[in-house]
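Morning run. Coffee first, then this:
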Amino acid sequence: MIANDAFRDFVHPQLNQEITAIGGYYVVTREVRLPFRRREVLCLIGYAVVDSSCCGAGGCAFARVAGFILNWKYKYNPDSRPLSYVEPIRDPAVRKEIQQLIGRQETVHQVNFD
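And here it is:
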């Protein structure tokens, strides 16, 4: 494993569990290992619901990109959540290409990068 400050552990969320947020909640429904240029991208798919905001109600489907997978679920944290070692994706051109790829494969309203 390569040591680099840009690389990090990613804590996998529990799927299909409501997580309270300001104005509502969100749910991660799936983890996707997306092939990209001989590498794999870790992508979470989910939805957010705004139902307790003073400004109205709404929602959206989203993708959250954790980064390139370097080591998949290689250990567990003290809360028994799996950890994967990932490299965040910083290059704007690569981000755009991955965003377009996700848009072709998933029905989401937004793609966010960690």
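Residues 8-113 form one domain. Good start to the day.
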